[in-house]
Amino acid sequence: MASLVFISAVGVDGWESVVYSADGKVSDSPLPMALSHITGSGGILYHLLISIGIFGFVASFNGLLLAAGRATYEFGKAEYIPKVLGQINPRFKTPHVALIVNMLIGIATLFTGATGDIITIATFGALSLYIISSFSLIAIRKKEPDLERPFRVPLFPLFPIVAATIASVALIAMAVFNIMLFIYFVAIMLAGYVYFRLVVKPK
C-alpha cells in the first residue's frame, strides 16, 4: 500500500510537485498536493481526503496519548520517575495522573511551533525501538526457548532481521538529512541513560 501511494503520488506530476508548494517551501501535505493536480483544490475528493486525514491525525494523537499514558504509568509504578505518575484512578481504573501529565506536555509541544522537529525526534525513537525490539526478540528466543508464546513470529529469525535492517537503513537516512535533530535525540538518550545509572539503578 505504501509503495502504491508513493508511486501514484509521484506519478501524477513528478516528485517536485508533491514536495514543494507553490511558494517553493517543502510541504508536509504531499497527498493533497498530488490530488489537487487531478481534481483541483476545490474538488470534493480533495476536501474529502483532507477531512479523512484530519480524522486520521486525531486517531493517531489519541492513540499516542493512550500509549504514552500507559508507558508513563509503568515508569511511575516501577518508581523510575515520581511515584505519583503510577497511580490508578479508583473509579475508572485508568492512569489518570499519567494521562493528564502527557496531555499537558502535548499541548505545550503544540505551542512550541516545532511539532515537525519533535515528530522527527520521536521517529528516531520509534526506529531505535524497532531495532532494539528485533534483536531482543532473537536474544530471548535463544535464552528462553521454552517460554510460553501465544504469538510466534513467522519465518523466524528472517522477519526480525529484515525489520531491523529496514529500520537501521531508515534511521541512518533520517540522521543524514536531519543531523542536528539526530544529535538532540542522542543527547536525550544519553541523558536518560545517565539518569537511570545515577538515580534509578542505586534504588
Question: Can you give keywords for this protein?
Answer:
203 residues, globular, mainly alpha
Looking at how many chains there are and whether they match, the oligomeric state comes to: single chain
- Roughly how much helix do the residues carry, as a percent range? over 70%
Identify the overall geometry.
globular
> What's the Cα radius of gyration?
21 Å
Structural class: mainly alpha
Share of β-strand residues: under 5%
Order of helices and strands: HHHHHHH
Describe the model:
- The protein is an all-alpha fold.
- Helices cover 71% and strands 0% of the residues.
- The protein has a domain at 115-203.
- It has 7 helices and no strands.
- 9% of the residues are buried.
How does the SSE layout of this entry go?
Layout: H1 2-13, H2 30-39, H3 44-77, H4 96-112, H5 115-143, H6 158-177, H7 179-200
